[in-house]
Specification:
InterPro entries: AB_hydrolase_1, AB_hydrolase_fold, Epox_hydrolase-like. It comes from Planococcus shenhongbingii. Keywords: Hydrolase. This is Alpha/beta hydrolase. By secondary structure, this protein is of the alpha/beta class. The chain has one domain: Alpha/Beta hydrolase fold, catalytic domain (Rossmann fold), CATH 3.40.50. Helix content is 40%, strand content 17%. The chain is built from twelve helices and eight strands. The chain is globular.
Length: 287
Amino acid sequence: MSNYQVKELITEGFKTVYCHGGETNAETLIFLHGSGPGANALSNWKKALNALSSKYQVIALDLVGFGSTELPADLNMTFWEWTTLRVKQVLAIMDHYNIGKAHLVGNSMGGVISLNAVMHSPQRFDKLILMGSGGGKTSGPTPEIVRMTGFFNDPTIESFGNLIRWFMYDETVLEDDINDIIRTRYENIMRPEVRELYPKLFPKNPAEMLIPPSALRRMTNQTLLIHGYEDQFVPREGSLSLLEHIPNAELILLKQCGHWVQIEKSDRFIQLVDQFIDQRNHQLALI
């Protein structure tokens, strides 16, 4: 049984689909998924939403360009314009529920959006949890990222299955679910409108993903960086770079873990999120 509901809301002129639970709880966690092929809110955050909705209001949206959220009328946007539109999606949902300030949990591209949200409206966001986040400097795109962004150069189910498995250090943690995930996400990304749009969602210059150090050092938010040590899509150097510039940041590296910490190390991830958000209470318990 799910502890959340799937809902719809008109944001910026198009319908956003999102998961919502724990509405009566005082603090709000907003979960932002990555840009992997076929990504959406549920594929990234299902277990975390169920576990954390008993204590927090939880919201996970299908970011525009992904999942079941409608596409805007104008698709001719730069990467930065897509990013700003996704930030406005988040703010529209917050306004709908009269949420003055929320915590952000961002995975990969969701981390980039989280950091841009803080630049856009710093007064609306409190703590940041960035998991396998983009935005930090690395030595350049990995072969796995090149295969992902160029997926439609060879859009077979076999190629897609390999790509999904590469997101993890050990896909056997998903047991039989891995084949269902591959099939469902493949069906999604092969939809004609998605197939045409997906390659356009990435910047032509990978440096556009980077958050300027001048911006990072001005972010006073308490920030928890979580990274799979064996992440082959966003190398751990990216989080080390963010750690260098964000003043109030800490980093946790998890061995035998790839890009999907929330799936491969789900129990540990949920524990880390809860401890970090509820840090004051945990500190009191130690006294």
